[in-house]
Prior knowledge:
Blueprint: E1 9-12, H1 27-33, H2 45-56, E2 61-67, H3 70-83, E3 92-96, E4 111-115, H4 118-126, E5 130-134, H5 144-147, E6 152-153
Amino acid sequence: MNDLIKGKTLFVDMDGVIANFEREPNCVERFASEPLFFLGLQPIVHNLRAVRELIAQGQKVKILSASPNENADRDKHLWLDFYLPQVEREDRVIVRNSDSKAEYMGDLGKCVLIDDYSGNLIPVALNGGTAIKVVNDYDKEIGTHTKYGIPYVKSLIQLV
């Protein structure tokens, strides 16, 4: 297991990290209004496999994901029930799109946020937490996260 995460609680984002959100046309608009949109998303298989492996190794994993409304919250829970039932509902935190994820993590010194959006990672890194950027098909390896010294991975398998 990677030293960056060992002994810490992992907070894993969904969209673009374990669920292939950006592959869908008009994803942001559809997510906010189309019933069961999120449930239809394909998993990012290698990242989902890595999360399952980390859980099997005893790593504490929680989901920390943003959503526009309660209907979308329900869809995310249904997706997790199907693809990642190992994470119990009490270990799933779904916040509103405008919320700072850092505020929901508790003692940042004992936590890691794994996310594809630098705007979520920067407050964690600046306040004593560990932040790890997931670089995917639409992100770049060099970007805002690098200005703050936030490491990146192309696959969560790199953390196992």
